[in-house]
Structure formats: C-alpha cells, structure tokens
Design goal:
The protein is α+β, with helices and mostly antiparallel strands and 184 residues long. Helix content is 58%, strand content 16%. The strands form two sheets. It has a four-stranded antiparallel beta sheet. Strands 1-2 form a two-stranded antiparallel sheet. A hairpin with a 4-residue loop joins strand 5 and strand 6. The protein starts with a helix and ends with a helix.
Length: 184
C-alpha cells in the first residue's frame, strides 16, 4: 500500500517535471523555435484552438518562423493571436497564404526579464510538486491504522527523497534554461 502511494506520487511528480521542461521551452532564447508557439491559442470560429492544430510551423531562418495554416480563413486569427501573446515580442505579417514571424533580437534587459519569468515558472512547478508530496503524505497518514508507524516513517523518508530529487530536476532544468537565455 505504501509502495502504491509512493509510485503514484512519483509518477505525478515526473509529469510535473516534464510539464516544467515544456513550460521552459516556450520561453524564447536568441533563436526562433516552433516550441515557442505551442501554447498559443487561436480564436478559431469562437473556439480557442492550439496553433499547432491549425497550421504547420517551419523554422526557415535563425529568427524567422513560417506558419502555413491548413485553413486560409484562419490567417487573420492566427496573426492576431501571435500579436496578442505576451512575452513573445513577435511581429507577424501575412501575405495571403502564410504568416511570417520574425523574432526581434534580444536585448540584455529582455534576457533578464525572461530569466525572471523562467524562475517564476520554475517556482510554480516546485510548489506543484510540494502539493503532490502533501497529498501523498496525507495518504500515508491515512494508512496508519493498517500499517505500523515505522513503515509510515520509512515511507515518508522515501517520499521526501523523491520530492527532493524532483525539485532538483526542476532546478537543473532551470539552470540550463537560464544559461541558454543569458548566452549572447
């Protein structure tokens, strides 16, 4: 039973770490990257739809992304969604068939803003992991009547080690992203 609680918590923490890495990938560095556009929602016939479901994204140059919509009527909506996205700083233009997005050069000040943004996202994901730990600890405490207190204490130590490992994984991903952002 304790192993089940720990396995469930570990799996949920793994997903949280992957979510953090995906979230970090959406913050741009010096190069244009299609992953920057993964979380953009386009108002497509009144429904918020992920950009990746409406168009193909191609990286043609270091700072240019070409977006080819599957439905040409969505061009204006795609262009507007990109323009309205905060922290992207992109200025899209469309020629009637594609949307071309040229990313501006990053200034040192902008890079520092992005580092702050990434640190905030990292802290949010660490809070989520600690929430998973709290829920698992409550589940372990509920097992006190069925299992001995020594087993519960051992399970809590394993849970703490699991939590520490996942928080360290987020910190490591955060360090890599900060280095990537500050690299000129």
């Amino acid at each position: 039973m304790i192993a089940d609680v720990l396995a469930d918590a570990g799996a949920r923490m793994d997903r949280a770490v992957e979510g953090a890495k995906d979230d970090f990938a959406t913050v741009r560095t010096g190069r244009a990257n299609p992953q920057l556009f993964q979380k953009i929602l386009v108002d497509y016939y009144g429904t918020p739809t992920p950009l990746s479901q409406l168009a193909s994204l191609n990286n043609v140059e270091a700072r240019t992304i070409v977006i080819t919509p599957y439905d040409k009527s969505a061009l204006k909506a795609i262009e507007q969604a990109i323009r309205d996205t905060p922290n992207l700083g992109a200025n899209p233009s469309n020629d009637g068939t594609i949307v071309r997005v040229t990313m501006p050069e990053l200034t040192q000040e902008r890079r520092k803003e992005y580092v702050k943004l990434v640190r905030t996202k990292g802290e949010d994901h660490k809070v989520h992991i600690r929430g998973i730990r709290r829920k698992a600890k409550d589940d372990l405490d509920a097992l006190k009547n069925e299992v001995g207190e020594d087993e519960i204490a051992r399970g809590e130590k394993e849970l703490d080690a699991l939590t520490r490992a996942h928080v360290d994984a987020i910190d490591e991903a955060l360090k890599r992203k900060e280095t990537e952002l500050l690299e000129v």
